[in-house]
Amino acid sequence: MQGLRLYKSEKLCSRTAIDSLFHNGNTIIAYPLRAVYRLGPGSEVPARFLITIPKKRIRHAVDRVLMRRRIREAYRLQRRKLLHPALQQAGMSADIAILYLSDNIMHSNIIGLKMKLLLERIANEALKATQERDGGDDETGLSK
Questions:
Q1: How does residue 21 score in pLDDT terms, banded at 50, 70 and 90?
Q2: pTM above 0.90, yes or no
Q3: Fold of the 8-124 domain
Q4: DSSP alpha helices (H): ranges in 4-107?
């Protein structure tokens, strides 16, 4: 098992992938965070992400960096137990953009709780998409 660190391959860097994400992605909100995500066929990396803190919301660069670090840390701690197992079970991968919506600096505990909500919702959507793709069969193989 790999450690909890974030690897370069987990960061969403491709301009075409980012454009596609914002044009074709789904949105969920757990204030002060908003996630734009797109599920696709499985790849070697279960999830790639990016974090955006608008300058219009947080004016000082040091505060934007602080919030980016808190969000990245919350994602790093939650992804292995919430998101990756669901995506691997579904045979999918996800591109995720996390946007910060608040004008105020939030405590890391709040960010952690909201990140957990976002990742649980994305994981549930992946599992739901798999069930729809497989024809609605449950674990026993019987249709409802």
A1: very high
A2: no
A3: Ribosomal Protein S5; domain 2 (3.30.230)
A4: 15-24, 61-78, 84-90
